[in-house]
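Q: Got one fold?
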Amino acid sequence: MPDNDYNRKAGEGYDFFAFMSRMKYINRWGLMRNTIPENIQEHSLEVALLSHALAVIRNREFGGDLDPGMAALYGIFHDASEIFTGDMPTPVKHFNPDFKRSFHGLEERAKNRLLEMLPPELAEEYRPLFFINNPEYLQIVKAADKISALVKCIEEEKSGNNEFRKAGSDHLENLDRSPLPEVRYFMENFMPGYRLSLDELNLG
């Protein structure tokens, strides 16, 4: 028998990271025909990258005082509850106010269930990453989430899939109305590149 035996019985140990690794099995955009499938692990990495960028832009260009590393961490964990709930399509989630409230309650329970899969001393370290109580970081992550959704729509349209045209238009309109100056900065300076082909990008 090897010195390190990683086999164990169900119910022993802690399963938090094993569950987190299953984010890659949860696909997004379930009601729409996808040319390029996207799972919540891929999406969460992109949201983390964008949250970090928005925090840096706020600090450097608009006098902010956010921790870009914390913004990135919030982005990594922002959809972790979907390991249990799945990615609920927006039209279903917003079907009526009662259902929306019930779904938010389900998300809260899913986050708490994940935290229960950690030793108590570690759970307290991770809890703030699941429940963002700073409105500035919450704004950043929500904006990054919307930018990520717009990027997905652009990629699908570039692949000839018109299924995402209306969603892309809605996300663009929403982002253009954002009160956050860092979002406007990103949209003006970085978003146009997403519409280019590899040959059109500036490779130096």
User: Anything to note?
Assistant: The chain is about 60% helix and 0% strand.
